[in-house]
Amino acid sequence: MKVPLSSRRATAALAAVLAAVLWAFYYLLILSLTPGTPTGAILFYPFLFGGLAYSVMAVRNGHAARWTALWTDRGAWGRILLIIAMQASVVAATFLDGPVDAALLSLMGDVVATPLLATLLFREHRGLWTTGAFVGGVLLCVAGGSLAVVGGSALLSPHGVGLLVAPTVPLTVALYFLVTARANRRIAPVAVVSQTMLGAAALVGAATLLGPGGWAGLGAIGPADLILLAITGLTTFWIAPYLYFHAIQRAGLVLPALLMVVIPIVTLGLTAGLLHRLPSWLALVGVPIAIVGAALAAAVEQAPPRTGADPGAGGGP
Fold this sequence. Notes:
By secondary structure, this protein is mainly alpha-helical. Helix content is 76%, strand content 0%.
């Protein structure tokens, strides 16, 4: 029995929103770690716990053979490098620019960079860029996000360093999710993402052990921090990406990406309510502007075309 398109999109939207809420908790979780927790540990353990849980799911779903074959796939290692770059930039932006700014930078990757790169690199979703409301929403998102980042306050280091990190977040977010979504069209997503997570854990772990701090980079953390990192891995590195790529399979690439507007909303609430940290007035102005822009772009993407399908939509799922 064929599921109606409206029902598929509603289910995809719900999955994407739930993923966004879980991802918003990522910033709170890593900021709750003991100050001075090694960066290698912050990257390694969530990859490890999320990758292990994801891999168990892949095996239970009958994808063990494909999961094994991915370890000799050059494209798979490209995705591994991308997710490491993405997560490292997100961690850096969280501590250098603050959690709200980091969430907005990720949103700009979802709303602006993802559809733009899909069009430039793969000639998909070209019709959206001929719609004035969509372009206007994207520009609002860029303007609001820029205000928030420029007006943000650094947590641990000079703000200028945070500005250097900022452009890498939207670029790596868009590239990773775009490349992975395309791989998921050919290969079971649970096999693709689980192998990527474990591969990232392996590379980060090896680099940390071989680095200046050696074993201290992974072993010198207390039980409470390890529990926080395990929760981070299971929620934001397993459940959230599973929901997100499930949404992409049901509704295509653009709608789930645009619904990531939920992340900075939840992050702002968590930051103010639990961490008692408020952005500057300029950042507070930028946040709603970025959110309105993303919501406008999302509304345009959800609206059915007036005359047939988008000829530039490519071979999306």
